[in-house]
């Protein structure tokens, strides 16, 4: 049976993306029912939402024509998602005001609730809006975003709704999380690295690896949804869903510098990034293919080992890529060498795949748990609940 989402669309210009949100949610296998505000109908039509969701789109008039429709909708769905969420709706959510169909659904809903803010920077950073968001969080509502980007009137700033695909990824993660654990990481500060580093050979060539950053991104999303303050250092583009800090790096040297800058501000670290093992000797001018028969490289520093040697973390989670995850010798050795509390043995066949298998080892040098052929989101949730919760 598919997870059902009640998608509430309020009157922001970002509501023009609501059909794309529906489409991305449907791709993930969710059943979607839409509720549209009167203001949002100025940007999109209920008919378009019905075509994509393949079910009735509820409007304000239904609130007065169908008996207890807000109660019925609240009981029939697993997740309530407000995307976009305006300043007006956020303020009313925080105080329990219920003066339209959407707000009545929110007050009546007893499951997982999510707000995806969208507004201009000046509104988003207003103390009143920030206080309202804090009030919503205290009620257990998950806040996703906003992010930095293009706004209305050719402006750019903080307040843009996160992209529909990112919303769907977050809903996929949220659907796997026990409702009692949605705030289980509240108060924890976690530093997560993601993606594979790239080292310059010359102005046009690089040395890298095939790490996609999918698991690192999923770990960051999951930790945020579970209430943690998350700092992300990534080599791959990541949409900001409300992270404490989001740093983009390319090389292992940049990664090491970012870790030095942020390690002391976090109590736990998850080193999911794949750091280049070798550093090529850089040449300022393009190398001629005819003249180069061998590439000179040097062995790279063990960045995690260096960081844990000078920073005391509450929990350290490392990753070990190997051909056979059932061979415990290497992960147990690295667990000790890098001063980790947990080591995730990662199969080479996992690289860039959507389905993963892992074995998790703990400091007691024993197999802590295993993950076999699950989605990246499920793997991320499993790792977090078996290490930090």
Q: Describe it for me?
A:
The chain is α/β, with parallel strands linked by helices and 389 residues long. It has two domains: 4-176, Rossmann fold (3-Layer(aba) Sandwich); 181-385, CoaB-like (Rossmann fold, 3-Layer(aba) Sandwich), CATH 3.40.50.10300. 33% of the residues lie in helices and 25% in strands. The chain contains 14 helices and 19 strands. The strands form five sheets. It has an eight-stranded mixed sheet with strand order 12-11-8-13-16-17-18-19, sandwiched between helices. Helix 1 (18-27) links the parallel strand 1 and strand 2. Helix 5 (87-95) packs across helix 8 (127-138) and helix 9 packs across helix 10 (214-225). The longest helix is centred in the middle third of the chain and has 13 residues, at 164-176.
Structure at a glance:
The chain has 389 residues and is of the alpha/beta class.
List the helices and strands and how they pair.
Layout: E1 4-9, H1 18-27, E2 31-36, H2 46-53, H3 60-65, H4 69-76, E3 79-85, H5 87-95, H6 101-108, E4 112-117, H7 121-124, H8 127-138, E5 142-143, E6 147-150, E7 156-160, H9 164-176, E8 189-194, E9 199-200, E10 206-207, H10 214-225, E11 229-234, E12 245-248, H11 252-262, E13 268-271, E14 278-280, E15 297-299, H12 303-310, E16 315-322, H13 329-337, E17 342-347, E18 355-362, E19 367-375, H14 376-385
Parallel strand pairs: 1-2, 1-3, 3-4, 4-5, 8-11, 8-13, 11-12, 13-16, 16-17
Antiparallel strand pairs: 6-7, 9-10, 14-15, 17-18, 18-19
């Amino acid at each position: 049976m598919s997870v059902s989402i009640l998608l509430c669309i309020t009157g922001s210009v970002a509501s023009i993306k609501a059909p794309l949100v529906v489409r991305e949610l449907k791709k993930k296998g969710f059943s979607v029912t839409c509720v549209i505000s009167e203001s949002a109908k100025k940007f999109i039509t209920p008919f378009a939402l019905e075509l994509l969701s393949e079910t009735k789109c509820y409007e304000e008039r239904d609130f007065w024509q169908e008996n207890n429709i807000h109660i019925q909708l609240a009981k029939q769905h697993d997740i309530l998602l407000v995307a976009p969420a305006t300043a007006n709706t956020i303020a009313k959510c925080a105080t329990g005001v219920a003066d339209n169909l959407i707000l009545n659904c929110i007050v009546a809903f007893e499951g997982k609730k999510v707000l995806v803010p969208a507004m201009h920077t000046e509104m988003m950073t207003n103390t009143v809006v920030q206080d309202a968001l804090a009030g919503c969080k205290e009620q257990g509502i998950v806040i996703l975003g906003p992010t930095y980007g293009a706004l209305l009137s050719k402006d750019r700033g903080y307040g843009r709704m996160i992209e529909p695909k990112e919303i769907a990824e977050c809903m996929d993660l949220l659907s796997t999380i026990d409702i009692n654990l949605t705030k289980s990481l509240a108060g924890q500060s976690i530093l997560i690295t993601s993606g594979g580093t790239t080292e310059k050979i010359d102005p046009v060539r690089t040395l890298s690896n095939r790490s996609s950053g999918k698991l690192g991104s999923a770990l960051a999303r999951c930790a945020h949804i579970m209430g943690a303050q998350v700092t992300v250092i990534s080599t791959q583009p990541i949409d900001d869903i409300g992270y404490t800090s989001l740093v983009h790096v390319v090389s292992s040297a940049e990664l090491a510098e970012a870790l030095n800058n942020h390690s002391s501000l976090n109590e736990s670290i998850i080193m999911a990034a794949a750091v280049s093992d070798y550093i090529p000797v850089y040449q300022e001018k393009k190398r001629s293919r005819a003249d180069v028969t061998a590439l000179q490289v040097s062995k790279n520093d063990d960045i995690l080992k260096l960081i844990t040697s000078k920073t005391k973390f509450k929990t350290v989670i490392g990753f070990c890529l190997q051909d056979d995850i059932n061979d415990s010798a290497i992960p147990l050795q690295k667990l000790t060498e890098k001063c980790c509390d947990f080591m995730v043995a990662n199969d080479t066949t996992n690289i860039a795949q959507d389905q993963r298998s892992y074995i998790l080892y703990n400091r007691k040098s024993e197999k802590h748990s295993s993950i076999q052929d699950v989605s990246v989101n499920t793997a991320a949730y499993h790792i977090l609940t078996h290490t930090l919760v």
